[in-house]
Each structure stands twice: as C-alpha cells, then as structure tokens.
Amino acid sequence: MRFEHLGAEPRIHPDAVVAPTAVISGDVTIGADAQVLHGAVISAEGGPIVIGEHVVVMENALIRATSVNSVHIGDHSLVGPMASVSGATIGEEVFLATGVRIFNGAVIGDRSEVRINAIVHLRTKLEPGSVVPIGWVAVGDPTRILPPHEHEAIWEAQRELDFPGYVFGVDRDTPDLMVQLTERYARSLARHADDRRLD
Q1: Of 61, 88, 139, 180, which is the most exposed, with the fewest CB atoms less than 10 Å away?
Q2: What is the pTM of this model?
Q3: Looking at the domain assignment, is residue 24 inside a domain?
Q4: pLDDT tens sequence across 159-187
C-alpha cells in the first residue's frame, strides 16, 4: 500500500518488489532491485527516506524518518524481521538482524553488523566494519558497546544523549514529561489524517 503524506508520494524503482501488505508512506525513494517484504512499514514523517539498490527490508520491519532525522540505507544492506530504524544513516553492505533497534541520529558505517536484538542508541556512530553482539547496546560518540546487564554504564552515556530533548524537544526534568511528550507527538502524527492512498 502506498500513501501520499504531506504532499509527497513514494518513488519506487520499477525493478524493486514491494509486497502488497507493506506500507510505503510519503517522501520515500526505493532503489532498483530492492525487496520490501510483507508487513514492513516505511514512513517518512516529515523527512525523506532513501533506500538504496539491492536492499532487503524483511517482514514487519519499521523504517521511519522525522523532520529532524531523515533515513538513508545504503546499497546491499539488509533490515531484518521486526527491526526498527528511526532517523538513522545506514551504510552499504550493513546487516541489521532480527529485532534490532536503531535510534534517531545514529550512523552505522559500511559493512557493519548489528546482531539479533541489539540496539544502536541515539546519536551513536559505528565505524565501518563494527559489530554489535547479540542483545548488546552501542551508545555514544565515541561509541561504547556494552552488554545489557551493564545498565548503569548504558544509562550514564544515554542520559547525556538526551532522548526526550533530541527527539521530542521536551526537557527530561519537566514534571509532566509524558503529558507534553505524548501530546506533542500525537499532534505530529495527526498529520496522517490527510494522507491519500495511491493504490
């Protein structure tokens, strides 16, 4: 299913294959010989998404751009089942395994691997050829790659990255943080009310 969003329509190369149950919304460009499988959602929420040639986006993956952070996925990369990429730059020949989470402002260098259920946090930069092990967390710039049980070290680095401020423009110390965050986000998402289905 293709949707016009914010006046922009997806541009899909004629040699790309998009499953009929995938959702492609807004300013999305999909390159030659790319494959987008069933249940995948690729949604440009105010910023563009560019998916290169021979990219595979597997079942139920979510790729979302924002007005602050666009998405670029380089040629010959794979986005695994149930993976989530939000406002990030993914290099060429990158492997994002099942269930990975890539957050806003992250940069993943060419030929890197982010393995099953691993996380690349907000504004984290992975150098080319990096590996994030199964279930581990990459955080910060310079990047620290930590096992999930080192929560305090992850939180120390993550706190400085300021997720609510960077993504939602809300001060973490605001007493009604979740009220402001959800109201602001809901207003932004309400722009889908005017979407137009193209197929």
Answers
A1: 180
A2: 0.94
A3: yes
A4: 888 888 888 888 888 889 999 889 988 98
Q: Is residue 173 part of a domain?
A: no
Of 160, 119, 153, the C-alpha closest to 138 is: 119
3-state secondary structure of 97: coil
Whether 26 contacts 6, CB under 8 Å: yes
Residue 172, in any domain of the structure: no
Cα 32-37-41 angle, rounded to 5 deg = 95
Q: In 113-128, which positions are buried (b, 16+ CB within 10 angstroms) versus exposed (e)?
A: bbbebbbbbbbbbbee
Residue for token digits 């969003």? 5
Higher pLDDT, 163 or 113: 113
Which candidate, 119, 166, 117, 121, places its Cα nearest to that of 142? 121
Domain of 146, in residue numbers: 2-161
CATH number at residue 50: 2.160.10.10
